[in-house]
Design goal:
By secondary structure, the chain is of the alpha+beta class. The protein is built from eleven helices and five strands, in the order H-H-H-H-H-H-H-H-H-E-H-E-E-H-E-E.
Length: 396
């Protein structure tokens, strides 16, 4: 069911955003409507002022004081939903609200005792947690003392005042948790987007680096063959076309997130790339990959592609040996890829983007990468788990 098929009141744009300021006038009206039903306890003071039991001056003063009290209450609670006042201002306004409640009850009678309900709600909703405990308790105690003085009839209102104060403290904590979860969800979404960008950057680097290096080599080879061996040059051009078409397919698949590199395909591609670069290659036959997780095979295939690309582009090597072995280690059975050449390993002083991205890819698959110069050249060793890890408690 889409948002257009939902009832209007359940759509996201029409729901009250808990713990956030109103986005527009309609949102502000919805928040205000949520608050207004709580004004039911003002019915008794309004009825008292309308009864004519007080003099003109007392009645006018009562209406002004009631309007001030209501305005303070609505301001505190409404602002607390989005952009609350600073703690000193909130404390001062809550104290003023409590003072008004005590003064109005003592001067105008027990009909005004319901004002303590609003003081308790305001304490629970706006004050810090520790201060709210004390404020709700002191407000309830003040109500008891005032009730004894004015002759309160319904003492059950004390329980209402106490429970509403603590309930609003729980609501405030729930709102805070909701806001934190919303922020956490936004953070997770941002991290997922960053991870997807890193994946795409790694895939494009590995794909285009290898393919463009092969295209460059074959283009140079075709150029050297063209004057004397046009037929062989045409074959190289045909190979260039095939490589470029495959690179286009791979890039589209990488962008879509569906591409899976296979070790057998990369071994065959490594043989072609090294031969085209006049590098004597020792490439093993297709290894047995029974029981090897797809993630491990894919990570090892990317490692082979990156290693061969570095040999072709940077090393200046004339010989390259590739081995794929199964080894038993303390961490369990591992599938190991070794690529060793007699070149310089490149001129960079540190690991490039390819090796950095490759390390991240292998770590994600539970593997490791070792790369460095040897006595006779450069060696890269990548290891990945050869079996799926057994879950804890499975009995494996």
């Amino acid at each position: 069911m889409t948002d257009d098929q939902l009832p209007s009141w359940t759509r996201p744009e029409n729901q009250i955003r808990v713990g956030q300021p109103p986005r527009n006038r309609a949102d502000a009206v919805r928040k205000l409507v949520w608050i207004l039903p709580w004004l039911i306890f003002l019915g008794s003071p309004v009825q008292d002022l309308s009864s004519g039991d007080h003099g003109t001056a007392a009645t006018v003063a009562g209406w002004v004081a009631l309007a001030t009290f209501t305005g303070l209450y609505l301001t505190l609670v409404f602002r607390n939903m989005g952009r609350p006042f600073s703690e000193p201002i909130v404390g001062a306004l809550v104290f003023l609200l409590g003072a008004l409640a005590v003064t109005l009850c003592l001067t105008l009678g027990g009909a005004w005792i319901g004002l303590f309900v609003y003081v308790s709600v305001t304490c629970g909703a706006t004050l810090p947690q520790r201060a709210a405990y004390w404020a709700v308790g002191l407000n309830t105690l003040a109500m008891v003392l005032v009730g004894l003085d004015v002759g309160l009839d319904d003492w059950s209102l004390i329980l209402v005042v106490l429970l509403l104060g603590f309930a609003m403290m729980g609501v405030k904590q729930l709102v805070r948790t909701t806001v934190e979860l919303r922020k956490a969800r936004a953070t997770v979404a941002q991290l997922a987007a960053n991870e997807e960008r890193l994946r795409l950057a790694r895939d494009l680097h590995d794909l285009l680096g290898h393919s463009l290096s092969l295209i460059t080599l074959k283009s140079e080879l075709a150029g050297r063959m063209l004057p004397d061996h046009p037929g062989k040059a045409a074959q190289q051009v045909a190979d260039i076309e095939q490589v470029s078409r495959q690179a286009l397919v791979d890039v589209r698949a990488a962008v879509s997130g569906y591409r899976r590199a296979r070790l057998s395909d990369e071994l065959a591609g490594a043989q072609v790339a090294l031969t085209a670069a006049d590098v004597t290659a020792e490439v093993p036959a297709e290894p047995g990959l029974d029981g090897v997780p797809e993630e491990s095979e894919t990570a090892l295939a990317w490692a082979l592609r990156e290693a061969v690309t570095n040999v072709v582009r940077h090393s200046g090597a004339t010989r390259c040996t590739i081995e794929v072995l199964r080894r038993q280690t303390l961490d369990g059975p591992m599938l190991e890829l070794s690529v060793e050449d007699n070149g310089s390993g490149g001129s960079g002083k540190g690991p490039g983007n390819g090796l950095t991205g490759l390390t991240e890819r292998l770590e994600k698959a539970g593997g490791t990468l070792e790369a460095g110069r040897t006595k006779h050249g450069f060696r890269l060793v990548a290891r990945v788990p050869a079996t799926t890890s057994a879950p804890v408690g499975s009995g494996a």
